Amino acid sequence: MLQPVSAPVSPEGPVLQAAADTWGSVMEQIRSKQARIAVVGMGHVGLPTALGLAAQGWRVFGVDSYLPLISLLQAGKAPFYELGLEGLLLEYLGKGFFPLDNLNQAIREATVVFLCVGTPQKSSGEADLSQVETAARAIAQNLNGYKLIIEKSTVPAITAQWIDRTIRRFARNEQQGKVTVDFDVASNPEFLQEGVALQSIRQPDRVVCGVDSERARAILEEIYGSLRCPLLITGLSTAEIIKHAANSFLSMKISFINMVADLCDSIGADVSQVAEGIGMDPRIGRRFLQAGIGFGGYCFPKDLRAFIFLAQEYGVDFSLLKEVEAINQRRVELFVKKVRSALWVLRDKTIAALGLAFKPGTDDTRESPSLRVVNALLQEGATLRAHDPKAMPLLPKAPPPGAGHLTYCDSPYAAAAGAQALLILTDWPDYRRLDWQRIHREMDLPLLVDGRNLLDPETMSRLGFEYISVGRPKAGAR
Ligand code: UGA
After folding, report:
1. At what angle do helices 236-267 and 319-343 cross, to 10 degrees?
2. Is pLDDT above 70 for 21?
3. Residue of the CA atom closest to atom 11 of ligand 1
4. pTM, whole model, 2 decimals?
5. Which numbered atom of ligand 1 lies nearest the CA of 254?
6. Domains of the chain by range and CATH?
7. Ligand 1 centroid to residue 193 C-alpha, Å
């Protein structure tokens, strides 16, 4: 049986240890799943995490300070689209999952606190950690027994140390100088992908736990022990760096293949086959080599900038990642140029845009390259007829002042009606299965510009389209 060990000595001095019997009862409660878990932040990471834990038999408080969000959850409604999420919410609401807007209460009742709050970026690229700090202070003020604080939000290295320090400082103030706090901090970065979040939680490739005490390790092993995947135990900062390094590396793969695509476009080679050819080497791997209009979303662009900023802070010039970002920025411009060279003048042209979310399987449009394309075309005075299976209700109804016209359409066929070009901007699999003959009939000019290489050039050409994609030769030109 695991015994309590000394917690690390903090800059403020040693922590009082839980008595062995107290620790024994903590572990007993963890093993029997009687211990409560609080998940702070009900966003794209927090909510699936909380429901995943509830599904494993834990009693979980889903905490958020935004009251309308909690009301929505209490009514059994998911605040964003994610396959299977609402079903899971309805299944566990009031059974293992309890939405709550009272952070203090949740902390007091919980033994394990997952921090899943937002870490948006500042204009400098640096991560804004104010929500993490607020949560740490609340924990300090409600430290009524041993707690394990698990940082799950993507944060720069040494944030866990700051959480630890902040809790000690504020707990000390609360108790007029006497340090009677008893807690551990762990870093457990989340690798879930939007659109397949529940699958990512149920069957992760790996679980990374950054710990600096045996107690934290023991609890995390209990929480994740039933998963059939490697559990990598590291130090705190190492775990934090693993998350930033993983997202930056994946972004780098995408920017790399996008540059190869540009070369293929110039030479007349096929980037999909290049990706297949290099991806067959297990040292490279096939995934994340899909060329197109670039990466977006809440994670890659922000995490890349935060990692560059962190490196700079420590005197490391990570210029490789600066280039990854610059390449990605240029993708939209290059794509709009492709549309322009096919259509010539864009003003008053009617263009259908299929896909607005930053990737398929989600209604999330944060930093979506699709929206950047739509906005760039509107700025040039084009009339846009847009469609997305999930994202449309969340988007502003009117285009920015001075721009062309934007209409949201109920179906891809309605979007195609009278269009002089149709653009594929998000690779929703449903678009592959459209009745493309019907789309052809609906359009004014059968020009198809595929920003995600979703369709087959030969098939589209056979159907009578002028088909342009990214880094792949036109049909018949191979
Ligand atoms: C990403 C990571 O993949 C997750 O492991 C991580 O947990 C998450 O960020 C996070 O930090 O929370 P996500 O942002 O949901 O997940 O989306 P991805 O599937 O990674 O796609 C990101 C962007 O890259 C999308 O715009 C997608 O269209 C683009 N992409 C992806 C490409 O352009 N090419 C590819 O080959 C793959």
Report:
1. 30
2. no
3. 299
4. 0.92
5. 34
6. 14-234 (3.40.50.720), 259-468 (3.40.50.720)
7. 6
